[in-house]
Amino acid sequence: MSTLTADDLRARVGELLAAHPPASTDRLEFLRARFDAGLAWVHYPAGLGGLDAPRELQNVVEAELAKAGAPDNNPRRIGIGLGMAAPTILRFGTDEQKQRYLRPLWTGEEVWCQLFSEPGAGSDLAALGTRAVRDGDEWVVNGQKVWTSVAHIARFAILVTRTDPDVPKHQGMTYFICDMTDPGVEVRPLRQLTGEAEFNEVFLSGVRIPDANRLGAVGEGWKVAQTTLMNERVAIGGNAIPREGGLIGMVSKTWRDRPELRTPELHDRLLKLWVQAEAARLAGTRLRQQLAVGAPGPEGSAMKLAFANLQQALTGLEIELSGEDGLRYDDWTLRRPEKVDMLGRGPGYRYLRAKGNSIEGGTSEVLRNIISERVLGLPSEPRVDKDVAWKDLPR
Amino acid sequence: MSDLLYSEVEEDLRASVRDLLTDRAGFTSVLARTESAEPYDLKLWRTLAADLGLAGLAVPEELGGQGASYREVAVVLEELGRSVAPVPFLGSAVLATAALLAAGDTELLPRLAGGELIGALAVPLTTAPDAGFPGGVSANTEGALSGSVRTVADASVADVLVVPAVGPDGPGLYAVEKAGATVTEVVSLDLTRRLADVSFDNASSRLLTSGPGVESALRQALLVGAGLLASEQVGVAQWCLDETVAYLKQRYQFGRPVGSFQALKHRLADLYLEIVSARATARYAADTLATGDSDVPVAVAVAQSTCSAVALHAAEESVQLHGGIGMTWEHPAHLYLKRAKSSELALGTPGRHRAALAGLVNLPPA
Ligand SMILES: Cc1cc2nc3c(=O)[nH]c(=O)nc-3n(C[C@H](O)[C@H](O)[C@H](O)COP(=O)(O)OP(=O)(O)OC[C@H]3O[C@@H](n4cnc5c(N)ncnc54)[C@H](O)[C@@H]3O)c2cc1C
Fold this sequence. Notes:
The structure holds two protein chains of two kinds.
Chain A lengths: L5 H14 L7 H10 L21 H10 L11 H14 L2 H13 L4 E4 L15 E5 L2 E8 L10 E7 L10 E7 L5 E6 L8 E12 L3 E2 L5 H15 L11 H11 L6 H29 L6 H23 L25 H8 L9 H12 L20
Parallel strand pairs in A: 1-4
Antiparallel strand pairs in A: 2-3, 3-7, 4-5, 5-8, 6-7
Chain B lengths: L7 H17 L2 H8 L7 H10 L18 H14 L5 H15 L4 H6 L5 E3 L15 E3 L5 E9 L6 E8 L2 E8 L3 E5 L9 E9 L2 E5 L3 H37 L1 E2 L2 E2 L4 H30 L4 H26 L11 H13 L4 H11 L6
Parallel strand pairs in B: 1-4
Antiparallel strand pairs in B: 2-3, 3-7, 4-5, 5-8, 6-7, 9-10
Helix pairs in contact in B: 1-4, 4-7, 4-8, 5-7, 7-8, 7-9, 7-10, 8-9, 9-10, 9-11
The complex binds flavin-adenine dinucleotide (FAD).
């Protein structure tokens, strides 16, 4: 790691702003220049958008750029690319892959999606059956994925497939980068309980993927996927937020502004959730401080679980606090949004969307299994599928 | 943002305290002591307080202390929580010491900080930081105190009491020697932290401070007490989790370690999650107290309302998941349950702290 200080970074941000004044520079041009200056994600290697600097210093960069009114890369729209694809490519990609994909991923020119879940493989991701069969320098892929967020705007996907059905399920998988514009990729909207179609079904029929788009070795797909999933959980709830940042701030504001809605029972619940939100915020801060000194604790999975609990309790309370308005909904139109807009929509939407927080990225039940086994070291449950070839598993 | 991690110095401190407590406050000896005539281990206290210098950790060096901060005191409390060691640390090294510091005392402090004297703050242990100045004891024009205070922590072993009392010119903090007070030990729910009723009948005292600052001095002492008690509660909770996990790994029923049953694993995962949050709030409270940050009242209210509940939940789960053995006197789980339930009431209940918070962060009641 380099020995850059906060002041060094401030100076570099100053140079970037001088060479590309945000007011007179095209948004994309600015973002590309920022990437090239190593100020995209400072903890990434030099030449790949970073400066090998401590992760914590990213906050310095963000604060300086925000002060200067610089455009951001719309991180929520490209969350899967930033949080999952990028760290996986960084760790397992070839030099060519890193050069090709990381910059347009970060600037948002190319949106990524995650082709993991299948109708028969969700929590048990390693059971997946989408087949990839080698054909010379290419792989031919057939299968179906489901719940694929933002597939309708994605240019690329991270994809896990089965390449050897004759070995136990964890061993026969291989991981690819899939071009969503390739022939044979079909994306169909899947409407969800909020009314919108944020996720999709994706059908893969005879899709040909060059071997150069493989991430990691043949048969090592599970290991690569683990990296993605770990990063997914750290990415969720991983940003520094001020006190009352996010939903708790919104609910608190309603409480302050609308005295006629208050009841003693709601007051009690609001204060409990305020404390819970503050505790989760502090725990998140602690986690980031641990990451910054290179001691990543097992708290990552716990934070994702905490976040889901909190969001659901808060959005439930918010509806009750809304009085008559809690019975209304803002919009049931079938739309295909580009990102999850929790703060931009009404309480009804927030309540319904938050139900996904304990399912997406690993269900709360599965996270509890992970914490109890990998953090607390409790014994795993008897496994009936461990030594059985994938093709012989009951399904 | 505050540093919420433990420094190397703090980890070293933890290791040495833990070593000592492992040697000298194993649970069989702690348990045996609860039924003996000497419920407190004053030899252990002297080692901690005088030999290791822990009684004066947060006291400036010129007043005979170590010149460290409340962050270090918090780490000591975590370890004392883990071991439920029967020593008057909270009463003397935290509450009485913080009151003397806030009162600007320079006479008694060095003797408390050096472990030469044990102190206690003469308020009911349930007193919340925002409780207002107590009126149970009054001082006459000569400074003689009369009146009584119930359920004072660690008073039975105290050499000197710091007493809030109302004199002819208003509230003041007074110091009273043990001989001047009648201290009657009561039967406490918590076997390892003793309580006593204290009364004064024309007891001669020394005025520590009075005037406009005295109410905030008492409040400051109670904030320090409540904020640091959170760390003790984290220690209690962590012990309960660790012991329960260890037990469930080795206890077999239905041909499997019971720890492999998901119904139990999920409860322990939730408990772990609670402790992660509790630790962050306790660290934040300790850090704001150490730096004198203006956010202290909020930090303390958040930490107390979180850590009280988490310690209690951990202790209750520990008893339940140990099954029959958890219900016995011979297993230490009950010592932690009694500590956890008592400290839920100590220095303000979670509900009381949330009510205080409502005022602090502008979320007014209905
Ligand atoms: C809004 C949203 C967006 C999503 N986006 C994507 C995406 O972009 N890409 C993608 O690949 N996937 C995506 N997913 C899919 C998500 O990862 C899966 O839904 C999730 O992993 C759960 O799998 P499942 O739906 O098959 O549920 P199942 O695995 O069938 O689970 C059903 C129930 O059983 C419980 N359960 C299962 N196994 C266990 C166990 N061992 N112990 C205890 N309980 C268990 C589960 O917790 C759940 O309650 C998304 C999901 C949602 C809700």
